[in-house]
Amino acid sequence: MTKSGSAVKVLFVTTELAPFSKVGGLGDVAGSLPKALRQAGVDVRVVTPAWPGVLERVAALGIKTTTVKTKVYAAYDWRIHSANVIKATVDGVTIYFLNSEDYSGSQYPSQLNFWSASPFAVFCMQALELKDAIDWEPDIYHCHDWTSAFLPCALAWHRHYRQTGGKSIMTLHNVAYQGILEPSPFLEASGLEPWSFNSSTMEFYGQVNLLKGGIVAATAVTTVSPTYANEIQTYESTRELSGILYQQRSKLRGIINGLDVKFWDPNGDKAIPAKFSAKDLKGKAACKKALLERAGFDPKSDAPVIVCVSRLVEQKGFDMVFNGAAQIAETGAKLLILGSGNDWIENGIIQASETYPQSIKLFKGYDEPLSHLMYAGGDIFLMPSVFEPCGLSQMISMRYGTVPVVREVGGLRDTVFDVDRPEGGNGFTFQTCDVDGMMWALRRAVDRYNNNKAQWKEIMLEGMHEDFTWDKSAGLYKNLYDELMQ
Ligand code: ADP
């Protein structure tokens, strides 16, 4: 609530947005949190680039759009960059897609340099200009990860925007990705004051670090789980930003992510062959059968099915999975992995699947419908992350009655609790980040599935009954917005 008593106006500035341009958890959050915030009484809107294919996806979903009369403009590299503003309303949330040739390249450039960083700076400045085109001025700009971290930097240090004023929140979905590039000619082209480049602002070992700048410049900083908020002040996964995060800790808080529980609902999911719920689990067996068939395994097998749906990057701990392939195969379980990412990890998994073809199967790539079948058809969801800001997959798996086996780190620690604690829990957890640690938890899970079906059902139901809605966390974000308006 603002001082005048009207609803606080928040513009989400995001370069990923489910279901149009999702790459990982950030896309899910940007797609679902605004809906919950609206219900909590926040006047929230979203601005996002129309990356290649995005407007086609909007049209394919039958969503009506209109083009706003006025374009948005941003000055960058001695040129005016303009974009058409395409407006759509999805579940009551107004979304502005910025459409221009600036957004015709890669959503995540493999190398960040002056050219590949330009769309992100231009996007942030166009987001700041949007208010004039739509006649709606945000009280707060809510930015997400390095890709929109230029916006708080601009509000603090840009020769024009620092005079316009404005509040910003920087949400850290993953501190390992920081947006680092050479200062020249970026700084000059972007319009940032030369004095904005020093060790207490954006400078980072002689380079520009956009995320560091965003953290320093933002009015408030949040991250996506309370445990990760603590870890990043000391933890190596931050790639050396822990010092700055410790220094800025008074404006940092951890708010756990929620899920779009309507979208991720085994009782209404159109992508799975049979629906099921906590009240009636029968359909899950049909999903398991369909998944085993799809993997080329015997569909009648009662062996536990371990599933992983993930980006195959170092963070996710898949070296433990392929290095532990022999032990996993020995348990008699089937392991099905959906994902793509780094070559060395993909190759490790391919090799494991060729060595143990009766036990391990890799579905390489990004496949949304198949991910739903994996969540629905699995018995165990394996997520041995080295670090994990929040993690959504373990929550999705619990919604689908697939019991998580996770490392006790970041948001996994805040959402998965070991069943062998005196007070019980909803999954199996381990601490030691190696094959032995992972196998200790995985073997307990496989053993419980094989030998104690009654307890297994209880664990499944515990997860299915967890409250993963956004309600509580949306309230915490609303409190933060209200605090910033005081
Ligand atoms: P991160 O954001 O680090 O990728 P999260 O667990 O927070 O991890 O979110 C991952 C999201 O991306 C989940 O919705 C998951 O289902 C989805 N996802 C990851 N890899 C794939 C894939 N290969 N195919 C389909 N969906 C995927």
Measured distance between first and last alpha carbons: 9 Å
Characterize the largest beta sheet: strand count, sense, and whether it forms a barrel: 10 strands, mixed
Helix share, percent: 25-40%
Poorly predicted runs of 5 or more residues:
none
The molecules bound to the chains, other than polymers, are: adenosine-5'-diphosphate
Strand tally is 19
Radius of gyration over C-alpha positions, nearest whole angstrom: 23 Å
Q: How would you describe the shape? A: globular
The residue-averaged pLDDT reads 96
Strand content: 15-25%
Which structural class fits the helix and strand makeup? alpha/beta
Quick structural summary:
With 486 residues, this protein is of the alpha/beta class.
Q: What would your notes on this structure say?
A:
The protein has helices at 25-39, 54-60, 114-134, 150-157, 161-164, 186-190, 210-217, 226-231, 242-247, 282-295, 318-323, 325-330, 343-355, 368-377, 393-399, 410-415, 435-451, 453-464, 471-485; strands at residues 9-13, 43-49, 65-67, 72-76, 79-90, 93-99, 140-144, 167-172, 180-181, 203-204, 207-209, 220-223, 252-254, 305-312, 334-341, 360-364, 380-383, 403-407, 428-430. The protein is an alpha/beta fold and 486 residues long. Strands 1, 2, 3, 4, 5, 6, 7, 8, 12 and 13 form a ten-stranded mixed β-sheet that branches. It is globular and about 65 Å long. The mean pLDDT is 96. The structure holds adenosine-5'-diphosphate. Residues 24-25, 28, 309-311, 338-340, 366-368, 371, 390-393, 396 line the site of adenosine-5'-diphosphate.
